[in-house]
Every structure is written in C-alpha cells, then in structure tokens.
Specification:
Number of domains: 1
CATH architecture: 2-Layer Sandwich
Helix content: 25-40%
Number of strands: 7
Strand content: 15-25%
Structural class: alpha+beta
Distance between the termini: 27 Å
CATH class: Alpha Beta
Oligomer: single chain
Strand order of the largest sheet: 1-4-7-6-5
Largest sheet: 5 strands, antiparallel
CATH topology: Enolase-like, domain 1
Length: 151
C-alpha cells in the first residue's frame, strides 16, 4: 500500500509504524492504493489503483462522489474535485482511494487508517459520525455509493 499527502516535499518518502512505504503528491491530490508505483489520478478513466487491483485479480466496485454533491462542496462552488474509493466485492475491504481537490490529504486520512486497521467500507460509512456540512461527507458518500453497488 502506498499513500500520498501534502505534508512534505514531493518525492519524500517515509515509513509508518507498520513499515508501509509512503510518498507525497501534489498540493491537491492525495491517494492511497495497493500499487507501489506513483500514478496520476483521473476522474473518469482507470487510475493506477484500478489497474493494480485488476491485475491482482481483485473483484471490486468504485464508489465516487463529487465535492459539489455535498453541502460543503456546493457552498465552495466546486465542480471539479472528487473522491473515489475501491471496495472489494467479497469482504467490502477498502482497496484504494483517490481524492482530488482542496483538503485532499485530510480527507484521505480516514481511508488510510481504515485500510491499515482492516476496517470495512460498511464500518467506515455507517459506524462513524460525519459532521454536516463538512467536506468529510464526500468520503462518506463515496463509500455509500460503492456499497449501494454491492447491494
């Protein structure tokens, strides 16, 4: 698993307590994925997380939410930013995520934590209290979108 954020210089790497390698991306792009290769995030085409999950033979769905689809994102008049979450069909594990937009590193953090501690998408979507209106609703709604596809 690899993750990126805005807390350091581009290309800076570090290891967390579990020894998972990490890296940093651009100011408004944060990601967490199985791949050990860094790749750009994209709204409508397969991202590196998709490609890696497919090549590993994983069966998954993609949950998405545009920032503008939440109250806070609407208030920001943000029509381009989004969150995308990959969820395994078999056990609802969170396989990867991409967040593109303001506060991306903060928004991807609960997904990285869930991946680290083996929480399911169901747990993160339904057993966490999300403030309204707040940008964290983008993550909640992306997870719910993915889970709705599994129903």
């Amino acid at each position: 698993m690899q993750h990126g954020g805005t807390g350091g210089a581009p290309g800076h790497s570090r290891r967390g307590r579990s020894g998972i390698p990490g890296g940093y991306t651009s100011h408004f792009a944060a990601w967490s994925l199985w791949s050990r290769q860094k790749a750009p995030c994209c709204r409508h085409r397969a991202t590196q997380a998709d490609i890696t999950a497919r090549s590993d033979g994983l069966d998954y769905v993609v949950g998405r939410r545009d920032y503008g689809g939440t109250a806070y994102g609407w208030a920001l008049e943000d029509s381009e930013s989004f969150a995308k979450v990959l969820i395994a069909r078999s056990d609802h594990r969170i396989l990867g995520a991409h967040v593109m937009g303001p506060q991306a590193a903060t928004l991807v953090q609960p997904l990285i934590q869930a991946m680290q501690f083996d929480q399911t998408a169901d747990q993160v979507a339904h057993e966490v209290f999300y403030i309204h209106p707040a940008l964290t609703e983008v993550i909640e709604n992306a997870l719910i979108d993915g889970l709705d596809q599994l129903a």
